[in-house]
Automatic annotation (TrEMBL):
Example of a GO MF term: hydrolase activity
Keywords, sorted A to Z: Hydrolase
Domain of life: Bacteria
Originating organism: Ruegeria pomeroyi
CDD domains noted in UniProt: nitrilase_Rim1_like
The protein's name: Carbon-nitrogen hydrolase family protein
Organismal lineage: Bacteria, Pseudomonadati, Pseudomonadota, Alphaproteobacteria, Rhodobacterales
InterPro entries: C-N_Hydrolase, C-N_Hydrolase_sf
Domain CN hydrolase: 1-258
Amino acid sequence: MKIATAAYPLDWLDSWVQYEDKLAHWVSEAAGQGADLLVFPEYGAMELSTLAGPAVAADLEGSIRAVSERMEEAATVHLQLAAEHGVHILGASAPVDPGAGRPVNRAELYTPAGGRDHQDKQIMTRFEREDWDIAPGGPLKLFDTALGRIGVLICYDSEFPLLGRALSEADILLVPSCTEALAGYSRVRIGAMARALENQCVTAMSSLVGDNDWSEAVDRNTGMGGIFGPPDKGFPGTGILAEGQLNRPGWTYAEVDLSAIAHVRADGGVLNRSHWVEQDGRVGSVTNSCLRAKAPLN
């Protein structure tokens, strides 16, 4: 298959049609390059808050409500585009009101046959929990699709090895991200590459890019698209299948062969995924050793 992962800039929207046209352009461009799986970034749906006007878009709580109210309409657009172009799409994530408690950070996966399911973010960043009050959502899911088994680790989730291990049966892990600074982008990128190493799979990272002075939540964004695998048999020695240019909007593409994933898991130069369990008997056996220099005797 061919994966397309986005470095996606937000726009100020004056009409719903403008949003539909933007998505149609992005999806048709990737599909025109032969992409089968399209990955949009974390909080890419925040541009929908602009449809409610400047005051709402600039307000943290108001922007949550405005975006959440539009997500069913957005789902309809994504399903139409997935069917029209014969592609799978991970839509940009959004704060969504689940109907009880605080909003969650949710990304939806759409299939060409009309399938639809979602993944909620598991662990919130400091901004999400301290300023925005976004809550952890439902459990991790493994999506069985025509393209293979797909898991989703939304941004910060990719930095936690046990979350990645819970999805060790996935062939592909999607990592939609939204990071303000280069340090944040680097953390998620390192997490995505580490998860590809540990699970001997492919990870696809998308990023929000560009500045948006109309929003307090997504005002500054740094990143680029990247697709990674284990640095082992059948994959590049760097583990990098493809990467974009920092802060340059557009798609990044890579061809992915599921048989290469199966082969490296069965007969790689190393077998990280199979040997994972050998940690269990060793992490509890740490002993202290004092190597401080002793004071000289007088």
